[in-house]
């Protein structure tokens, strides 16, 4: 039987990966403590999944200002760094690799997270969405536009978070530049109507990302930095596709070739964009000829469709999300072509569908591994 391409090793800029299966970043809301730090349960969760080529953690806020959801971990305080050390040590002890996703939600936050202060954004435009607070879902508000000094503070927060990631023992970081969060808000003309050097033209709207990269590369090597983009995001977190969307992302991707990044992580459309003007239906295939580095693709891939993406040269690695929730030993199951368990959607987050605020291991670390019959 021929070897599954997904299971072949790859050199990720000096990081030797056992396979090309990536655990995608997924918010699970288990940092349910006053310090927003990961717990021993989170340590076990990632340890169980350490056979992935590498893990990308759930989004972890770079500052208190970046918080936008309940029970999500941070990487801006010493207690958070110390807690993350237990995760990286556990994954490394199993021979795994792990990157942390650095996150600032921008306007997809709520004053409840900021002692009544408004969340920040490129411009004072309400995304008209919902924010998940400790009191349940609440409507988003009109944020305050970041000042130039505020933008510089965000840059330094990203850099400090990267420094903290190094201290915590991570193999690298992924800058969350997608899904309608802060950096994506700067990219999009529907959320960025600034008239200074951070708004207007494509070059100005994407400037913040590259200023972060230029500063961050002084605290860790470029080849330990990944970038996540979602070029065909539509009607999610207030972002809509327009005629300048794809030219904007083509500019970003071309410019990323000037950096020796670990990888570029591309998400396929979250929703059906058939009939949506200017939308790219097959994101990875569209951008593959443009990007010269290592490409990670993310979609609802199966064992077979993910393998096809690598076999046909469209991507170098494939990120799996939901399948990793219910199958901590996903790599083994793919290797043996074994049946896959189905994830319980009601326990995706710490606050379950039944209203319980602390599910414990239920739906998190209690999924069984495959046993050969």
Q: Can you describe this structure in just a few lines?
A:
With 373 residues, the protein is of the alpha/beta class.
What does this structure look like?
This protein has a single domain, classed as Aldolase class I (TIM Barrel, Alpha-Beta Barrel), CATH 3.20.20.70. Helices cover 28% and strands 16% of the residues. It has helices spanning 40-48, 78-93, 148-168, 182-187, 202-205, 207-216, 245-256, 283-287, 303-311, 322-326, 330-336; strands at residues 10-12, 15-17, 21-23, 54-61, 98-103, 120-121, 130-133, 136-139, 144-145, 172-176, 225-229, 263-267, 295-298, 317-320. Helix 8 links the parallel strand 12 and strand 13 (295-298). It is globular. The chain starts with 9 loop residues before the first strand and ends in a 37-residue tail after the last helix. The mean pLDDT is 95.
Write the layout of secondary structure elements.
Blueprint: E1 10-12, E2 15-17, E3 21-23, H1 40-48, E4 54-61, H2 78-93, E5 98-103, E6 120-121, E7 130-133, E8 136-139, E9 144-145, H3 148-168, E10 172-176, H4 182-187, H5 202-205, H6 207-216, E11 225-229, H7 245-256, E12 263-267, H8 283-287, E13 295-298, H9 303-311, E14 317-320, H10 322-326, H11 330-336
Parallel strand pairs: 3-4, 3-14, 4-5, 5-10, 6-9, 10-11, 11-12, 12-13, 13-14
Antiparallel strand pairs: 1-2, 7-8
Order of helices and strands: EEEHEHEEEEEHEHHHEHEHEHEHH
Q: What amount of the residues lies in strands?
A: 15-25%
Largest sheet, described in full?
A: 8 strands, parallel, barrel
Total individual domains: 1
Gyration radius (Cα, Å) is 20 Å
Going by CATH, the architecture would be Alpha-Beta Barrel
Assign a percent range to the helix content. 25-40%
Indicate the structural class: alpha/beta
| Secondary structure: number of strands | 14
The shape is globular
What fold name stands as the CATH topology? TIM Barrel
State the CATH superfamily name: Aldolase class I
Number of helices, counting only DSSP H or I runs of 4 residues or more: 11
Name of the level-1 CATH class: Alpha Beta
Distance between the termini: 20 Å
Low-confidence runs = none
| Average of per-residue pLDDT values | 95
- The neighbouring-strand order within the major sheet is 3-4-5-10-11-12-13-14
